[in-house]
Amino acid sequence: xxxxxxxxxxxxxxxxxxGSGAAGGQTAYTLTLDGAKVLMLEAGRNYVPEVxxxxxxxxxxxxxxxxxxxxxxxxxxxxxxxxxxxxxxxxYSSASTDADKTFWWWRARMLGGRTNHWxxxxxxxxxxxxxxxxxxxxxxxxxxxxxxxxxxxxxxxMLIGVYGDNNGLENTPDSPAGCLLPxxxxxxxxxxxxxxxxxxxxxVIAVHRAVxxxxxxxxxxxxxxxxxxPRAQQxxxxxxxxxxxxxxxxxxxxxxxxxxxxxxTTVHLPPAMAxxxxxxxxxxxxxxxxxxxxxxxxxxxxxxxxxxKEVRAKARxxxxxxxxxxxxxxxxxxxxxxxxxxxxxxxGKVGKYLMDTVGASVTGQIPALEDLPAHNExxxxxxxxxxxxxxxxxxxxxxxxxxxGYHIEIGAGRGMPSFGSTAGLANFVGGYGKKLRQDMRRxxxxxxxxxxxxxxxxNEDSYCEIDPQKKDQYGIPTLRFHWKWSEHEKRQALHSHxxxxxIIQNMGGRVTSxxxxxxxxxxxxxxxxxxxxxxxxxxxVNQWGQSWDVKNLFITDGAPFPSxxxxxxxxxxxxxxxxxxxxxxSALKRKEL
Amino acid sequence: xxxxxxxxxxxxRTALxxxxxxxxxxxxxxGVSLAQSTAKNVSGYGKDPNLLKIxxxxxxxxxxxxxxxxxxxxxxxxLIIPEDQGSPAASKVGVVDFIDEWxxxxxxxxxxxxxxxxxxxxxxxxxxxxxxxNSFSALVEKELVAICDDLSAAKPxxxxxxxxxxxxxxxxxxxxxxxxxxxxxxxxxxxxNVAMTTFDGPPVEVLKKLGLT
Lengths: 593, 213
Prior knowledge:
The structure holds two protein chains of two kinds. Chain A contains 16 helices and 20 strands.
């Protein structure tokens, strides 16, 4: 993608978007296809999935058989470059040294951000998820309902391509006809879990993932997405046609050179660039938003990492889409006489109510899956089935000792042998020699994992603030995190262990390991920190992601989430970003901004 | 035991148990943050390596084992994974090179394994001398088996406790090194990593075996 450098900056833009991932990509896409002139600033380097993705590489071609290291925390072939929980020169701190109270901050400093490696699980929030406080008295309601967001879920699904089914289950919304692509068949182990989970009352249905199981209906979708805008329709149809459907090999975490799965770099940014309305400037580490005398934001200050110099860019609207915590950091570092506590922070709520997802898991060995005839189970490069939360009624009736639900991510199959899986299997089977070889063949593919992904309720003890003592290598003050799980999350994780053990026993298997509740930030679903609400006292932004204090400042990443449903947040981030961008466009047209 | 954990497909996050283990093991002095302390200077391949390049062992960091150690390692690896049904022994597909790469890497896990492997290989020679008046690599199969049976016993005797830990670690390194090669994958009857036009789900014979038809 042809990008610009600092020398190529135009004098002023309609909109500056900070960040290029799910939020930044969607925001820039919507704006540019409708004619707005946009500058996108990305802190990391340019990244081109078409030529950089190690599609068919095997572990023996990588250092250390491709296993995880502090440099590549999800393994050598993970798409993330210049990212992770630790980035040299870009520290953060935890207020507590107690592992239970730490927050681990994942960042991906690259074009497309973490969309390059994410799991592609694309679940809609349901009606309950927007009104959780109304339902059980805890946390916060959103100032919008499912019906407000549903049309945007439809649009995002049609644009990025999501496979899945409609099952009509409680608080697990169906998509209208024409939104979803066909779901792939379950793998052998997935089908076996489906059969046995039923006995414990747990439904197992097709998961929704952003992978093309067939080519998008580019003419129809483009027309529906951009009515009355033939140029946008042409550009989007061309972009959709350039994406190949999945060829049923290679893990999505590596990224996808044939563009079969969604990543911002292959789906959002190419059509936005094709409009001619988008300038992308990589290696631009944004420090702060600058204010004018009229109470409006005038632009941003960033460090050009290629020269180390401070640079300014100007626009009529500023959008932060830098990921929840990075957007919070920019706000808190944007101090002025008018905003001594940081920008858009008259409520004092910036940085507050940080949330992640509850993560816990159980693995089991299933004798029925031993020694299966060889067959290819690579599939769609991720899971095909999952279990949505199924105990809404019991929970409402007070029969459970925790308030919110979890879904189950299911792992099974004869995936590509990895260092971790085979090294672990060797010690599971024990012994050595020909017997070990025989046992390895017998047990390979006979393990399943059941993974809890649960809702965390926002609390007063989980937040981030500027560390008064630290700066990063660019001289920008860094974040300090405070974290606490409530009993709701802890009990939910325990409940998941009991459920998973029961399913494994029902399958005639035995539990081989358990993972307790992981520390904050480990699931990389951090949201909150600049929550939306219905008034300026209790929230940072309104339902459009627009700052109550600064009218031309918006946040379109996960920071405005006032709750974090068990559903993975990315699809909702994109739907809300599209909705916010539509609002910006109409405000621009009305000359309000 | 984490047989299915390192696969991105199954659950990428549980692959990071070692990160957690590292954090739990950290004895932090008061006032020092976790984030700061774990960001130690590590000179590995860095945060932005070329993912497409076919990596050659020894080009990233200097290797550790000398000729004698490699000979001992070869015998042990091939005892753990011998030639079987036409599928070659461990050392024939580069497992000893891999283990040398592994223990020589600058990352904390690898640095932890280095003394375990180096001392373990030395112990094998001492034990071979003690029992059979010979170096480990010069032992005949019956003698090798006598030592390895002691180390791989479900409950090793007290005097073999340390050596048994080495054996278990060496076995997992050998298996992890072997079964991630094309030869090892074929032996496990992994048949993926090829482009397909459709995904049709499991074949009928598999569904039948599982009672899913």
